Automatic annotation (TrEMBL):
GO MF assignments: metal ion binding; oxidoreductase activity
Keyword terms: Iron, Metal-binding, Oxidoreductase
Stored InterPro entries: DIOX_N (IPR026992), IPNS-like_FE2OG_OXY (IPR044861), IPNS-like_sf (IPR027443), Oxoglu/Fe-dep_dioxygenase_dom (IPR005123), Plant_2OG-oxidoreductases (IPR050295)
Organism: Theobroma cacao
Protein name (Swiss-Prot/TrEMBL): Protein SRG1
Domain Fe2OG dioxygenase: 208-309
Domain of life where this protein originates: Eukaryota
Cross-referenced PANTHER family: OXOGLUTARATE/IRON-DEPENDENT DIOXYGENASE
A Pfam family recorded for this sequence: DIOX_N
């Protein structure tokens, strides 16, 4: 993950929401209560799961020209109009998904004293706690997080990899390898959907960076007052979200200025376009703003993998996607610098991407 901030961070006391729920099940500390404009009260109801873009990876891989082209067009539409989709027949064995769910849940159910052995230091994004908190008066999310850098090995912090559950490390290693293969496969198909050669992203990214974050949202007595996770877009190229079985519906995306809940499809993984792909495609494929909400009676567990280029490379719109009708919208920048900028600012919709926008620099 990205470097730590170069400035001191004072975040004040942060309640552990699982412990808060146990001790005071109906109490919502003021620091979690959102301002009126931020409260989750206007979520659209989808008619069915078929309203959500669903991509069948098997059809993308088939040699049948018609079937492949039809699915490729759906992928293109999902990336252009939604910025996210759910992928089915992704090739990852269900036992791999079940195993990561189990160790994630087992970790969050450990006593607080055990989880505190792996603290997320203020201003950083690895360990157990809350990320993206930078001041003592900042509103907090109703969520406990556990995040780890996975690939390349140099971004790992071995002290933060837990000894309990005993099979945590091995399970995460296997899971991450499978997710990496999925991301590489999806990026090839995304490249082709743009009229580019399939290996363009792989060649450009160098040694890809991969990180995982596990999110646990306990039930909340006043889900109308809090957010599980603040609105944001992801700084990655692709994000892979696994919504654990029997969890409450919590993910919402901003579609046409309306918050739309994402109804999980059995055994599917949710994919969303990150800021990196938006920049590389010159805005043709957009990163989607999303958030998480809570439930009054049910908890929610999600496992998120972020897949991004090496910190060393420089990024900017690909020349093939810039012309007179589509002038360059983003400047070139070092991906490591953007990653540091991303993790040292609180989550505020898509504001972090102003870092790269030529328009924002011009109007400043």
């Amino acid at each position: 993950m990205a470097p730590v901030p170069s400035f001191p961070v004072k975040v004040g006391h942060i309640d552990d929401v699982q412990e808060l729920r146990k001790a005071r099940p109906t109490s919502i500390p003021e620091r979690f209560v959102r301002d009126m404009a931020e409260r989750p009260k206007h979520a659209a109801t989808l008619v069915s799961a078929s309203d959500i873009p669903i991509i069948d990876l098997c059809k993308l891989m088939k040699r049948d020209k018609d079937e492949h082209q039809s699915e490729a067009m759906q992928l293109k539409t999902a990336c252009e109009e939604w910025g996210f989709f759910q992928v089915v027949n992704h090739g990852i064995d269900l036992s791999v998904l079940e195993n990561i769910e189990k160790v994630a849940k087992d970790f969050f159910m450990l006593p607080l004293e055990e989880k505190k052995k792996y603290p997320m230091a203020p201003g950083t994004v690895q360990g157990y706690g809350q990320a993206f908190v930078f001041s003592e008066n900042q509103k907090l999310d109703w969520c406990n997080m556990f995040a780890l850098g996975v690939e390349p090995p140099c971004i790992r912090n071995p002290k933060l990899w837990p000894s309990k559950p005993a099979d945590f490390r091995e399970t995460l290693e296997v899971y991450s390898r499978e997710i990496q293969k999925l991301c590489e496969n999806l990026l090839k198909n995304i490249a082709v959907s743009l009229g580019l050669k399939g290996d363009v992203f792989e060649e450009m990214f160098g040694v890809a960076v991969q990180a995982v974050r596990m999110n646990y949202y306990p039930p909340c007595s006043r889900p109308d007052l809090v957010l599980g996770l603040s609105p944001h877009s992801d700084g990655s190229a692709l994000t892979v979200l696994q919504q654990v079985k029997d969890s409450s519906v919590g993910l919402q995306i901003l579609k046409d200025n309306t918050w739309v809940p994402v109804q999980p499809v059995p055994n599917a993984l949710v994919i969303n376009i990150g800021d990196t792909i938006e920049v590389l495609t010159n805005g043709k494929y957009k990163s989607v703003e999303h958030r998480a909400v809570t439930h009054k009676e049910r908890d929610r567990l999600s496992i998120v993998t972020f897949y991004a280029p090496s910190y060393e490379i420089e990024l900017g719109p690909m020349p093939e996607l810039v012309d007179e009708k589509n002038p360059c919208r983003y400047r070139r920048y070092n991906h490591g610098e953007y990653s540091k900028h991303y993790v040292t600012n609180k989550l505020q919709g898509k504001r972090t991407l102003d870092f790269a926008k030529i328009e924002s620099k011009t109007s400043a």
